[in-house]
Design goal:
By secondary structure, the protein is of the alpha/beta class. It has twelve helices and twelve strands.
Length: about 350
């Protein structure tokens, strides 16, 4: 060897590619490729961000106590068992650093969020990909995949890019039948869109091996600031804090995050808006022959006849400035993931898909 070499498995990682945000030569872009809140962040968070500008010379809090307190107040949790990260992605990284490694098997489902695989591979873990049943998590398939080498199980709930949600009874079965030495990660990035649901917090409270992940990037519109959090047993949170950098979240992000979390009215209003627009978009596309499963997130997974039709539709939408997400990398090449816009955006998407299908016929 004539040059430094990375650890085994690093070069096998395929780079993650985010959703498109522009098309050359096309104006009036409707970006529906990254599951962002069409309303943007709350005004309260924007104000907190502006006010933080005068203190940029100061290091941020290293314990995130104020943001953790706000999250604990909102969700009725123990603030000492909350960890904050640069997006929930960073906490996935912490988990893999701490509980994956050479010869350790990390289970995720076939359509699960790609970052589970990437971070586990970076830690040297062995990836075990289990099948889903018609884009729904199959608990028995996960249980069948567990071996003495299993260290972690990642489950997105609701799923990304499927939008489908696992019943609590099925999660309870999975947790009960999984060895207590295995860390079960319930990724609730889209849990805020399910009214009256705790995102899995109850399972964390009742078990010593369950961790819940959440984010402020989706519902709260803070994707650009990268603020996520997790809740778990004290012994796991203590381990994760050992690998967390002391200043992993900037002071402006902490300030905006706390303000957003305390803005309860914003969440209520956007949930109502999103869920109504989501139902409308799914219904209108279904009437055109483009089906989707019931989604509990802020997107729908539109299914076309095959990969060629899905990609042709995406090309057509791009020509009109409508940017959605191809999901072939998730094992769903015949599908397009479409972030739920406002009602005007929904009408634009439906009209465009209808025009595409008419041109094909």
């Amino acid at each position: 060897m004539t040059q430094p070499q990375p650890q085994p498995g690093i070069l096998d990682i395929e780079l993650y590619v985010g959703g498109k945000s522009s098309v050359q030569g096309v104006q009036d872009i409707l970006k529906l490729s990254s599951n962002e809140n069409p309303n943007g962040p709350p005004a309260s968070a924007q104000q907190a961000l502006a006010e933080a500008a005068s203190t940029l010379h100061r290091y941020p809090s290293s314990d995130h106590s104020e943001l953790r307190a706000a999250l604990a107040d909102l969700h009725g949790l123990d603030s000492q068992r909350i960890i904050c990260g640069c997006g929930s992605d960073e906490i996935i990284s912490f988990l893999c650093q701490a509980y994956a490694g050479p010869e350790v098997e990390v289970i995720h489902t076939e359509h699960g969020f790609l970052m589970y695989r990437l971070y586990a591979m970076a830690a040297g873990g062995r990836i075990v990909r289990v099948p889903e049943s018609e884009r729904h998590v199959d608990v028995q398939a996960i249980l069948d995949a567990i071996t003495p080498r299993t260290g972690m199980i990642f489950i997105a709930n609701p799923g990304n890019p499927t939008g489908t949600k696992i019943l609590d009874a099925d999660l309870a079965e999975l947790i009960a039948k999984t060895p207590k030495t295995v860390v079960i990660v319930l990724d609730g990035a889209y849990a805020d869109y399910v009214e009256g649901w705790d995102g899995g917090a109850g399972f964390v409270e009742a078990n010593d091996n369950v961790v819940m992940l959440r984010t402020l990037s989706k519902m709260y519109g803070l994707g650009g600031l990268r603020v996520g959090w997790g809740y778990g047993p004290q012994h796991i949170i203590d381990v994760l804090n050992r690998v967390r950098g002391p200043f992993n979240i900037s002071a402006p992000a902490l300030a905006a995050g706390e303000a957003a979390v305390r803005d309860h009215e914003f969440v209520i209003q956007h949930r109502v808006q999103n869920n109504a627009a989501r139902a409308h978009l799914a219904k209108e596309l279904a009437a055109l022959g483009v089906a989707s499963d019931r989604s509990d997130a802020n997107f729908i997974l539109a299914r076309f006849s095959d990969q060629a039709q899905a990609e042709a539709c995406d090309d057509y939408l791009q020509s009109l400035g409508i940017l959605v997400r191809r999901v072939g990398s998730y094992g769903l090449p015949q599908c397009l993931r479409i972030t739920v816009p406002d009602m005007a955006g929904c009408a634009r998407v439906v009209q465009a898909v209808q025009s595409f299908l008419e041109k094909q016929s």
